[in-house]
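Holo prediction — biotin.
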Amino acid sequence: MAASPVMRGNWRVYHHPHIDSTNLEALRLAGREALPWTAVLADTQTAGRGRLGRPWIDVPGRCLLLSALVHSPPGAEGLLGPAMALAATQALAEMGVHGLAIKWPNDVLLAGRKIAGVLAEGPVNGLIAVGVGVNANGSADDLPEELRDRATFVSREIGRELELGALADAILEHFERHHYRLMAGESAAVVSALRDHDCLAGREIRARSGGRVIEGRATGWTEDGRLAMIDSAGAEIVLDAGEVTLS
Ligand code: BTN
């Protein structure tokens, strides 16, 4: 357990050298204190959690592992994860990383490969832990062989290392702004920014959702954070959750 939190902007930030999962720790804090604007950072996770029940593996001290504890925005719950992906994209762009894209629902891609993922969990006492993992500094050797054609590290693509503290601060600042909009009923601004970074709209995709595999053409983000597509029979479909690959 970290000694005490430090204020960074409007966030109370707990920093752990190692922890099971920053999302789990954020939800434990929600159970004890129920204070929003709390963030948990770790240098490494022993039980990092990915989407769809998968593990999230990090390179100790070289990846950003951050969870932000916030109120759930009524009617815009489905945009919390994407808003964090947007925040990470914008923070990285400010640090000179170009060519980023967001793949629905909340993967961040660089040069067509995944560099960041988001997992929103909760609520506990009305609070959601929105966790982001960024593969910041590392080489191909740090990835399991089966992931090397689908994932990469930012440093590998841009030829220099990122400062993780600055990245965390910038992500929290952007995420705070997006969260404020979602709470204020101004989600259209968030969706518009997501559409600006979307890598799926107009592309042929294969979606796995609710035990089904659907092929067709992605139309793009809906106003509430879902993915619209036209399937191969010409029917309009809207996906709540799932995983998409480009055909
Ligand atoms: C994905 O599968 O793409 C989502 C990965 C989310 C990983 C982050 S790392 C920080 C936070 N803590 C976790 O256990 N998971 C999220």
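READOUT: The chain has a mean pLDDT of 96.
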